[in-house]
Amino acid sequence: MSKKIKTIGVLTSGGDAPGMNAAIRGVVRTAIHSELKVKGIMRGYAGLLQEEIIDMDAVSVSDIIDRGGTILYTARCPEFTTEEGQKKAAEICKKHNIDAVVVIGGDGSFRGAGKLADFGIATMGIPGTIDLDISCSDYTIGFDTAVNTAMQAIDKVRDTSTSHERCSIIEVMGRNAGYIALWCGFANGAEDILIPEKYDGNEQELINKI
Predict the structure, then answer these.
(1) How many other C-beta atoms lie within 10 A of the C-beta of residue 2?
(2) What is the pLDDT of residue 2?
């Protein structure tokens, strides 16, 4: 029989994404409603290894729903990429009576959650990344804001480009995923859209097309 979960931890890891604080608020208040205790883990897996763990209640997440960034902070953690670090993190969870961890982050954060699960800590992931690159997720926290922010900037650049009769190449974020570029390209009326999934790096061919 599986162990009953009484206390959960929540952390944000990797790059911050708009909406992470709203997700934290949702996790904390839903847990309290379900009569669970909640521990906030500061600075992602780095904070877990340093035992930067705080008690959270409804007041802890008041007035954060519209704030950017993450109130739990976030940091990279090379130590957690090692088996020793992962085992230590699981032991710290058990030391603080954390039965399960909710991880809000991207692909790297989810890989970390998987490693925690390998050492006996139940985990759940909430996809928080502007890149929309989490497998099996139709939408990720932060993607919509990223697209709308980029669109506003592109509109302004286009006004200047038109005035000077020039062509501008706009680079957006997304790493190996072209979703932000694709959505912005269609919405802003781009002449062409270069995405990692398709672009072969031939800049001359692009110039010839224009």
Answers:
(1) 5
(2) 59
Q: What's the CA gap between 111 and 107, in Å, rounded?
A: 6
Contact residues for 6 (Cβ-Cβ < 8 A; gap 6+): 36, 37, 97, 99
Pick the catalytic residue from 131, 144, 155, 200: 131
Helix 107-118 to helix 83-95 angle (10° resolution) is: 70
Model-level pTM?
A: 0.88
183-192 long-range contacts (CB < 8 A, ≥24 apart) are: 183/147, 184/147, 184/150, 184/151, 184/154, 187/147, 187/151, 188/151, 188/154, 188/155, 188/158, 191/167
- For residue 203, pLDDT over 90 is answered with no
Cα–Cα distance between 121 and 91 in angstroms, integer?
Answer: 9
Quick check: helix, strand or coil at residue 124? Answer: strand
Active site residue 131: yes
CA distances to 11, 45, 144 from 102, rounded to whole Å, are 6, 12, 22
pLDDT at 210 over 80: no
Contact assessment for residue 129 and residue 135, using Cβ atoms and an 8 Å cutoff: no
pLDDT, tens digit, for every residue of 152-168? 999 999 899 989 998 88
CA distance 158 to 132: 25
Tens digits of residue pLDDT in 59-92: 999 999 999 999 999 998 999 999 999 999 999 9
